Amino acid sequence: MNEVLEVLHREFVYVWYYFLLQLRQIAGYWALGMVIGSLVSVFAKDTIHNCFGGLRDKKWGVWGVIPASLLGVASPLCMYGTIPIAASFSRSGMRQDWLAAFMMSSVLLNPQLIMYSTALGPTALVIRIVSCTVCGIVAGLLLHIFYRDKPFFNFDGFAPGASHDTHPNLLLRFIFNLGRNIKATGLYFLLGVFLSALFQQYVSADKFAALFGEANEGFDVLMAATIGVPLYACGGGTIPLIREWLAMGMSMGSASAFMITGPATKITNLGALKIVLGMKRFVLYIAYVMAFSLVTGLVVNIIL
């Protein structure tokens, strides 16, 4: 019995050491991401959404999917916040290909997650920003081609919800927003750090690289895109995992695929999208996400 306790204690010490090591390395990125996200949400959210609304009167045609996707990346809202806003834009006459670009990129990325992703290094950060923006643009182009004369979204029943950022004191408004961000992401962040510590202690780097490294000729990307569906819970929680996986030999293409399928198939996002799209178009959405993530991962591996 004493020997078992000694082994458990030793393993606990090892995992705790790796946990603290990872926490020290990445906590600053997480904190900075929350601060930047709250600043954007409190002071720039309305400006970003007004800019998108202002596109409605522009005569840019299908090329409007480009600024729409960029504004989606800049929007601090999650999917449940984006859909009511998109519903309002739709009712005011916004083109649905522009809406698709805005919503797709908004699902994948936001200012807070951009700051988190700086912990992955400049290469991964640039790939994430570019791939998510392009994913939104391509989604808009596909709607323009295949759904030009028929509706793709059904926003019935969705209306803009009440904003939480209403306190007259701007400093307190920011502090309250920051507190909500901590509450929403803090537990997932710590869980991600803990899981990365477990990987570091118990998973062989050589075996992991054999599964997810570039030498696996595309299968690594397929596996990463697939595990992104059940594993992704919160952006802040996955950054420590991706960071550890890259250190263990995961190819950048595999990481890129995971960073697309993960947020795009997050359970809470899928529930809202299922209502808006209906079953047939929902299946098309999942197929598009998987196909785009696979192509992105393969292209990244070829380039790098």
Could you explain the architecture of this structure?
This protein is an all-alpha fold and 304 residues long. The protein has one domain (16-303). It has helices spanning 2-43, 45-54, 65-74, 79-91, 96-108, 111-117, 122-146, 170-202, 205-212, 219-231, 235-247, 252-264, 267-303. The protein is globular, with a radius of gyration of 20 Å. The mean pLDDT is 85.
Task: List its traits.
13 helices; 78% helix; globular
Please specify the SSE layout and strand pairing.
Elements: H1 2-43, H2 45-54, H3 65-74, H4 79-91, H5 96-108, H6 111-117, H7 122-146, H8 170-202, H9 205-212, H10 219-231, H11 235-247, H12 252-264, H13 267-303
Helix pairs in contact: 1-6, 1-8, 2-3, 3-5, 3-7, 4-5, 5-7, 7-12, 7-13, 8-11, 10-12, 10-13, 12-13
Average pLDDT: 85
**Strand percentage, roughly?**
under 5%
Query: Which outline best applies?
Result: globular
What structural category do the secondary elements indicate?
A: mainly alpha
Helix fraction, binned, reads over 70%
Query: Cα distance, first to last residue?
Result: 52 Å
Question: Can you write the helix and strand succession as a string?
Answer: HHHHHHHHHHHHH
Annotation field: number of helices: 13
Low-confidence stretches: none
**Would you count the extended β strands for me?**
0
Q: Any idea what the radius of gyration is?
A: 20 Å
Largest sheet: none
- Assembly type of the chains comes to single chain
Number of domains: 1
